[in-house]
Amino acid sequence: MDPITTAILAILPALASDMIQSGVKDAYEALKAVIRRKWGDAAPVSEAITAIEEDPTSKAQAAVLEEKVAAANVAEDPDVLEALRQLVEQMKAHGVDGEAVARIQFSMSGGVVQGVAGAQNVQIGSMTFGAPPKR
Q1: Distance between CA 91 and CA 37 in Å, rounded?
Q2: Is 134 within a domain?
Q3: I need a surface site. Which of 4, 31, 65, 79 has the fewest CB within 10 A?
Q4: Residue 110 is part of which domain span?
Q5: How many domains does the chain have?
């Protein structure tokens, strides 16, 4: 799963609980703002974010979000990746969905993203994205 979808799915339960630090919430809003500024409010990826926010446990909406992020090449945009990096840092600092978020790694140099590794596994209810567990 791409790191953008992973981070969004990881933060939604925390947002719903209202127990989230303002830095995390601000970083999430900043990520959404960058995506909407670059692709527009009516773009499929923006609509997919709204849909998963409205129904955060929906496996179908999670799959649609992943599909729309990939179709728009959102994970290749440097501004989006910088906003994502800031969100992930805030999430890690405040313990938001530790394991899934911990697998998102960044290697940045001179303001240019050199590599981003997505999460291996993310679970929503009984649906799991990613590789099957190693035995």
Answers
A1: 23
A2: no
A3: 79
A4: 3-129
A5: 1
